[in-house]
Structures are given as C-alpha cells and as structure tokens.
Write a structure and sequence with these properties.
By secondary structure, this protein is of the alpha/beta class. The chain is built from ten helices and twelve strands. It has a six-stranded parallel beta sheet. Strands 2, 3, 4 and 5 form a four-stranded parallel beta sheet that branches. Helix 1 packs parallel to helix 10 (270-292), helix 6 packs across helix 7 and helix 6 crosses helix 10 (270-292). It is globular, with a radius of gyration of 20 Å. The protein starts with 6 loop residues before the first strand and ends in a 7-residue tail after the last helix.
C-alpha cells in the first residue's frame, strides 16, 4: 500500500504574499496619508532570542515600507520609565502599532505594560479590549499567531464549519484566542492542556489539530486521525548528540506527514505568519487613524 505524504501548509510563502500586498498598498496610500505606517517594538535587556526576533521584525517592516520606531532599553530600566515611553508612543501620530517584546526582566510587570498600550495601537492584539472584541466577534486587532493560523487555513481552502478542532494549549497568546477564532468559524472546539487526561483520545478525534504546548515531539503519529490537518505552533530549540542545535515543533513532523492531509513545518510554518499579521495589524491601525482624521474616506 502506497504511503501518502501530507501537503505542507507553507506559511513562509503566504507571509511573503501578504507582505508583497502590504508593500503595494502602503506605497499607494503613503502619498495620500502623508506618511508611512509606524511600528514601535520595545525591547528590554539583552536576551539573544528576543534580539533576533526584533531584528527580524524590523527587517520585515523595512521590506513593506513600515517605519520602525523601535527602542532598546538596558536591563535595569524601571517600570515607570517604560510606562512613560508607552504613554508618549500612544500620543505619537507617526506610530500606529506598539509591541513589547517578551520575555522581560523579572522586575517588570509585562501585563501592566500591555494595559498601558492604547487598544487601537496594540499590534500584538493582546489588550483586554481587543480580546473582548474577539469574544464578541467585533472588529478589532487580533492576536497575531492564531490570526496567522486562520489565514493559513483559509489560503488552502480548508473547511472549518462543523469540523472537530482540538487546540492543545490554553495561553492568552495562542490557545485561548485560537479556540475563539475557530469557534467563530463554526468549528466544534475542544481545548486540551497539561491537566487533560488521556490526550491521545482527544487528539484522535480532531479534524483540525492545533498544537501550542511548547513541548518538542509531544504529538506522535498514533495520536493523529488519518487525514487530519495538523498545525504546529511550537518553536523549540534542541541540541542533538553532536552538539548541533536546531528548531523543532511540538509534533513529530516526518511521522505525522504519513498520516495527516496537511501539516505545517517548523521552521517555515506559523512563525512567518505571526510576523506578517503583526505588520497587517499595524497597517489596519494606520488605515483606521487616517479615516478618523478624514484623510481617507470609506467608499
């Protein structure tokens, strides 16, 4: 019997397509609005992974024509200093999106800082107001990673209505908003987590399986329903026996590719989509600000 290989959900290709479309729109609108969109990424300390993420975001901004107002602060920066910076950025008409790069040094309260960002400039889509809009299915900025997953599923015309969707992970960053977005698309949603009993019995029922647990190789081929769509949100750096480090997801990609109908690779799956949706959120805020000032009028 011939082994079927799952199709790859290519987040990198779709992210490049979204960025090309944004670049065209920004180029056209910049002359009407009088400025490019602006994104401020705030980073504190010298976490190497965070520094790499910030560089990637700034490169992506430059690629589409978004101005970067990034600020890099020393590790000992106080809560009050950061709150003052956010307050100034909230009032800055050149800035449409504000993002605080996590993790932060232990003495800083990341939740309190997030609450300081005005909801319409919340590029990460994590402010309680934006999460409330998601719950109510109202227009608003959406959490970038789950929104990226939804765009990826839509790009490949994967039906969600009436399907059994299982989300593994219940974080405010991915799991909870992911479940709400799938619910809004008429999927029947189950959320599993570290306290869930008999995880394989839950995952085997999933037509759509979204894994965001942060545990390398958590999902094996025998836990996946034949023909399921598997979205791997996990990004884990592991070191092999030869001392070489590499990025892997939460699912055993090679084995699952023989069972699933679609699967996302790591890297190259959900990661690029997160950045693309961050840029899109900034662009959405830019359009909204221009319309509120009467510079752009809805047709």
């Amino acid at each position: 019997m011939e082994t079927k290989i799952a199709k790859t959900l290519d987040g990198k290709a779709l992210a490049e397509k979204i960025q090309a479309e944004l670049a065209d729109q920004i180029k056209e609108l910049q002359t009407k609005i009088g400025r490019p969109p602006g994104l401020a990424v705030l980073m504190v300390g010298d976490n190497p992974a965070s520094a790499a993420y910030v560089r990637n975001k700034e490169k992506s901004c430059a690629k589409v024509g978004i101005a970067s107002f990034g600020k890099h602060f020393p590790k000992e920066t106080t809560q009050e200093e950061l709150e003052a910076v956010i307050a100034a950025l909230n009032e800055d008409e050149q800035v449409d999106g504000i993002l605080v790069q996590l993790p932060l040094p232990g003495h800083l309260d990341s939740v309190k800082l997030l609450h300081q960002i005005t909801p319409d400039k919340d590029a990460d889509g994590l402010h309680p107001v934006n999460l409330g809009r998601l719950v109510r299915e109202e227009a608003g900025l959406r959490s970038c990673t789950p929104a990226g997953v939804m765009r990826l599923l839509a790009e490949y015309h994967i039906p969600l209505a009436g399907k059994n969707a299982v989300v593994i992970g219940r974080s405010i960053l991915v799991g909870k908003p992911m479940a709400l977005m799938l619910l809004a698309a008429d999927a029947t949603v189950t959320v599993a987590h570290s306290r869930s009993q008999d995880l394989p019995s839950i995952t085997k029922n999933a037509d759509i399986l979204v894994v965001a647990a942060g545990i390398p190789g958590l999902i094996t081929a025998d836990m996946v329903k034949p023909g399921a769509v598997v979205v791997d949100v996990g990004i884990n750096r592991i070191t092999d026996r030869n001392g070489k480090s590499r990025l892997v997801g939460d699912v055993e990609f090679a084995a699952i590719a023989n069972v699933a109908s679609y699967v996302t690779p790591v890297p190259g799956g959900v990661g690029p989509m997160t950045v693309a949706l961050l840029l899109e959120n900034t662009f959405v805020s830019y359009l909204k600000a221009a319309k509120e000032k009467g510079i752009l009028i809805d047709k």
